[in-house]
Amino acid sequence: MNKEEILEIINADLIDISKLKILLSGLNTVDIAEIFEEVDKEKIIQIFRILPKIIASDVFAYMDTDQQQIIVEALTDAEIGEIVNKLFVDDAVDFIEEMPANVVNRVLKNVRAEKRKAINQILQYPDDSAGSIMTTEYVDLREDATVREAFDAIRSTGLNKETIYTCYVIRRDRLLVGVVSAKTLMLARPQQRIGDIMDANLVFANTTDDREVIAENFQKYNLLAMPVVDKEQRLVGIITVDDIVDVIVEESTEDIEKMNALAPSDEPYLKTGILKLARNRILWLLVLMLSATITGIIISSFEAGLAALPILMAFIPMLMDTSGNAGSQASTLIIRGMAIGEINPKDIIFVIWKEVRVGLLCGLALGLINFIRVYIMNGQNLLLCVTVTLSLCCTILIAKTVGCILPIFAKQLKIDPAIMAAPMITTIVDAVSLIIYFSIAKAILGL
What we know:
Shape: elongated
Structural class: mainly alpha
Number of helices: 22
Number of domains: 3
CATH architecture of the largest domain: Orthogonal Bundle
Strand order of the largest sheet: 1-2-3
CATH topology of the largest domain: Tetracycline Repressor, domain 2
Distance between the termini: 77 Å
Number of strands: 6
Largest sheet: 3 strands, mixed
């Protein structure tokens, strides 16, 4: 049965409880959570109570924050404790971080002491650190244990662990010494020691490492999970690939917002108030507006030349738009290359040389077409054609160069390169293109 049919049953005046329970039990927990998005607030609690206890916590973890709050506020203390105790620690932390203080206090009050300690531990780490996205529910094995003993340990504790496909090998002081996969365990002989079959070549993170760097390492090494250690190299948690996917989405969203002159926001668009949306945009719009006055000053300084030959004014929008677009193309590629690790600041000379050649080719191609257009449409004025065409070639070349240098320069200064994207590049290049245009016009046309 599809989603629409289930919603019809839910929205009926009299809900067939037994039928709905059977149907929901056969669905993926993510799909059930999506169904809740279209359920009226009045029915959310009623439908949630129908869910079998074995899947209720999993569905809760995937639900929208507002729906989670509705459910928590309607449940008894015992029911809250039952749900949150079944959540993996990282999911419980994600839920708690989005709740108001009164809800958080009530939730933590009804969670097992051991879980509450783990949640509080993760909440203490900085938001962008590895510690903030790790979970403490993992399988650890002793270095001196046998494969048979390892399987016994996994069977007894694995049900409540986030993953059992990768196990971490520790010594008695919890020092991380290796990793062993489920495949390696299954293919090993029962009497073999874990220390003899483990992989000691570890890829791990420290609790304070930036989560963006962690995401790059997941991609680089094709990992499903990564161990997290403290300053003494003791194992304190793991990061799983599902959390890294969330990090990648958040970081990409933040970069896109910065590249389009928006202050980053953690809230979904439809749930963000208009005052906050306006506040996130006004600052950058103000900065860009004030910086755009530079172009006005440049145009005013060449007012006499424009009065002598007004036709020059007609080509200003074309030059500014083309140079701005050329700079934006370069900056976008460089920012993206740095984001995925393809480009490093040390590559700046190679990048500049490449963009100079690209700028020359683009400038020559567009200049040739522009020369023909201006020659035909403006009375075959050869000097005007040369002025506009040469200006176009020069501005494209400079725009490409500026567009590749600024993001790398920002990276060196520990500034997010995304800030040096389209709006900022366009503003800078507009001013440069006007100076070039009027200087060339003055030299060739004798203004």
